[in-house]
């Protein structure tokens, strides 16, 4: 029996319209019964998103894959104790984030390394807020980069911008990187991010703003390069 995890049953053709979620109680029962089909479909559904979030805590994709694998093992070991106080997805991501945090600390003991790399001497100090200003040391506000033309050259530029954006995300401090990834890449809403990361709405908003501003600044620098 398939539980419809790979393809959600939608009541309309547009993504924004309501989609019928799988029967979570049935899914949990199947997982507790060690139903391999249900487990495989759950893995297919969430692995890509989990990798993106895990990547925010660890230094490379290979370690992110190990974190996700460890999370799936933890799910199999812990599903019998799952009490349903949150959705299964929220619980799954909470487990994964805890594992990723521990692994990230082990791989990168000094959390300031990421910040130092981001604010090193290769970046013009004038692009940061001066001492004494609100959010001192963070990026100044910048204008949105101009859109690129819909031509072959524009398409190539678009691909290059994706690479620049991913590099900019990697440079962000951990919390900013994770919040931007979850909100802008994976479509988590503010409430979900606050619950999973155990942060306030105001803190989530500040982290999202700072992260977006930093990525935008790198894109602006790239588009302004005469090369």
What does this structure look like?
The protein is mainly α and 227 residues long. It folds into 2 domains: 99 residues, Orthogonal Bundle (Rna Polymerase Sigma Factor, Chain: A); 113 residues, Winged helix-like DNA-binding domain superfamily/Winged helix DNA-binding domain (Arc Repressor Mutant, subunit A). Helix content is 60%, strand content 2%. It contains 9 helices and 2 strands, in the order ββααααααααα. The protein has a two-stranded antiparallel sheet. A hairpin with an 8-residue loop joins β1 and β2. α2 packs across α3. The N terminus is likely disordered.
Number of helices: 9
What is the level 1 CATH name of the largest domain? Mainly Alpha
Helix fraction, binned, reads 55-70%
| Secondary-structure arrangement, i.e. CATH architecture of the largest domain | Orthogonal Bundle
Q: Provide the residue-averaged pLDDT.
A: 74
Radius of gyration from the alpha-carbon trace, in angstroms: 20 Å
| Count of extended strands | 2
Beta content:
under 5%
| Order of helical and strand elements | EEHHHHHHHHH
Distance between the termini: 57 Å
The low-confidence parts are: 1-21, 110-123, 142-150
Q: What is the structural class?
A: mainly alpha
CATH topology of the largest domain: Arc Repressor Mutant, subunit A
The CATH superfamily of the largest domain turns out to be Winged helix-like DNA-binding domain superfamily/Winged helix DNA-binding domain
Strand order of the largest sheet: 1-2
* Biggest beta sheet attributes: 2 strands, antiparallel
Total domains, how many? 2
Overall outline: elongated
